[in-house]
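Task: complex structure prediction.
Instruction: return C-alpha cells for all chains below.
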Amino acid sequence: MKKVYGSAAEALDGLLTDGMLIAAGGFGLCGIPELLIDALVESGVKDLTVASNNCGVDGFGLGKLLDTKQISKMMSSYVGENKEFMRQYLGGELELEFNPQGTLAERMRAGGCGIPGFYTKTGVGTQIAKGKEVKVFNGEEYILEEGIFADLSIVKAWKADETGNLVFRKTARNFNPPAAMCGKVCVVEVEEIVPTGSIDPDLIHLPGVYVHRIIQGEHEKRIEQRTTRKKEEA
Amino acid sequence: MPWDRNQMAARAAEELEDGMYVNLGIGIPTLVANYVGDKDITLQSENGMLGMGPFPFEGEEDPDLINAGKQTITELPRTAYFDSATSFGMIRGGKIAAAILGAMEVAENGDLANWMIPGKLVKGMGGAMDLVAGVGKVIVVMDHQNKHGESKVLKACTLPLTGKGVVNRIITNLGVMDVVEGGLKIVELAEGVSEDELRAATEATIV
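Output:
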C-alpha cells in the first residue's frame, strides 16, 4: 500500500484518459493543486471535464489547461477572473455548466458518500432549476441535484502522513475535502509528508481512505487580491 | 438628503443582533462590519470560515487565508475553518442568521436578481443562490435607482433570478422597506426624504 510518489507525473501515471471527469480542489487560487495541474498540462491529456469552483486566472492554476485547450467543459460557480476562459466560452470552444457554489460542493460530497442525488432549495425558481425534478417537502419546493462521481480527484493539502491522512491549512481547505471524496482515484499534493503517527488522530481533517497517491513539493501559492491595512490604522 | 454608502451600511448594521452569525456580500455590505459597534457578531465567509477578521497588516498576508472575495484577511480568537460542503451546509441548513447583500433588482414579492445580465459577460452566481435560499433573513442593501434613474425596486424582476421570494428587507439610499403580503411596506425614510419622494422613485407596489 505505497501511496507516496516521487513526482506529480509519476503520481498521475496510468490514471489519465481523454474525455475524463476530474474534480479539482481550491477556491480562487487558494488551495489549488498547482503541481498536479502542471503535470496534467505536461501529459497532454485532453477533452477534460473539470468540476472546480473556479477556473484559475490567465496563465495560472486551471487557466494553464485552458491555454493548452485541454478542457472541453467546466462545472463551476464563478469564472470571472479569466479572459481566456471567456474567449473560449463565447467562441463556443468551451462548455460551461454553472452550479451554485454550495450545490457544487454538496454534489461532490454526495458523490463521495454514494448519494446519487439530493433535493435542495438553492436555485428554485431560477434558470438553474430548468429541466430538474421539483419535489415538495413540508409545503416548500426543492430541486433534484445529482452527485458528482469523478474519474479522478486532484487535491492540495498542507500535510499528509504516509497513509494519506490529511491536514489542511486555514481557508485553503475549501473544496479540497469534497473534491477528494468524489473521485474514483484521488491524488493529493502536500507541502510536507510527515511520518505516520506524527499527526494527532483527533486532528485529521480527511482520513486516508479517500487518498490513493501523495506527492510533496514546493508551491507558489499566488495571492489573487492582496488587501492590507496600515499599522497606524490599528 | 438620501443616505450615502456608509449611512446605508450603518443602517444595515442596526439589523444585526448580539450573537448573530452573519454573511456579508461584496460592496456596501462589506462596510457593514465597520458599524457593528459592541455587538457580538460572527462573520461567515462561505469559502470556509467563521470569525472573519480584518485585512492583515502589510507583509503579514497569508495566501492560505482569504475571504469569499479572494481578499487576504486575518483570523480571530473565535475563528473556525471548515470545508466548502460544511460551509454551505450551515448556510442551507439555516444556521446563518442573516445575509446582507447587494442587488441589481428586487421585486415586491421578494424576488432577487443579482447575478447576471443577459447579453453581458456572465461570471457566475458563486454562493449567492445558496445564501438567499438558506439563511434566516435576507437583507438587500442597494441604491434605490440605477444610474439611468430607473427604479431597482420593481413589481417584477426583469433579470434572471438569484432567488424567488427570498428577500425580507430592502435598505436603499431612500429608506427601509419590508416585503409583506401584497407588496412593500415602508419601515423608515432616510433623513430628509419624504414618503412621496420614495414612492415616486419606486415601481413596486407600496402597501
